[in-house]
Recover the amino acids of this structure.
């Protein structure tokens, strides 16, 4: 189960980071902005108008419903098909535990002076390590899913990646 979760996370990160790495953008937010424009800016004016924003919000709502549907079986203790406040609190606590575990792992790996926090140099080392990982991830993803070898995952290739990722996650 842990291996599938790691692989799912690996693949998801590849989708999110691929554009930034492929374009060597210095700011991941710039890459995200570019991806949003590519996906939702139908008139090509470089700005999301209210109709385009509404489409983006609807996609986020659908994604949120999918995430909740995935969490529901795990946290819906009374099996009523909804997460009540106690169940949402349990899901939030589990999320905090995971976040704290990730934070702890980062401290163990990058806190060179063992002071319990990451200073600027340690954060820089961590960012470089993460960037190297994402470059390897992006290369692996393209090698396995870029069928037309154009260096970018088109919608059909992304769909194949997502389908494989979801199939692995369900196992």
């Amino acid at each position: 189960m842990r291996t599938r979760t790691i692989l799912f996370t690996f693949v998801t990160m590849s989708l999110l980071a691929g554009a930034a790495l492929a374009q060597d953008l210095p700011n991941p937010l710039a890459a995200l902005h570019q991806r949003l424009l590519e996906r939702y800016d139908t008139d090509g004016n470089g700005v999301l108008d209210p109709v385009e924003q509404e489409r983006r919000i609807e996609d986020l709502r659908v994604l949120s419903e999918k995430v909740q549907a995935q969490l529901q079986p795990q946290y819906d203790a009374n099996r009523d098909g909804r997460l009540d406040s106690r169940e949402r609190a349990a899901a939030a606590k589990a999320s905090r535990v995971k976040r704290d575990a990730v934070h702890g792992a980062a401290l163990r790996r990058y806190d060179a002076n063992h002071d319990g926090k990451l200073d600027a140099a340690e954060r820089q080392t961590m960012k470089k390590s993460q960037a190297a990982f994402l470059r390897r991830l992006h290369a692996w993803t393209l090698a396995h899913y870029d069928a037309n070898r154009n260096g970018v995952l088109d919608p059909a290739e992304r769909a194949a990646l997502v389908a494989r990722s979801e199939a692995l996650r369900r196992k």
User: Anything to note?
Assistant: Residues 31 and 97 are 29 Å apart (CA to CA). Residues 2-170 form one domain. The radius of gyration is 19 Å.
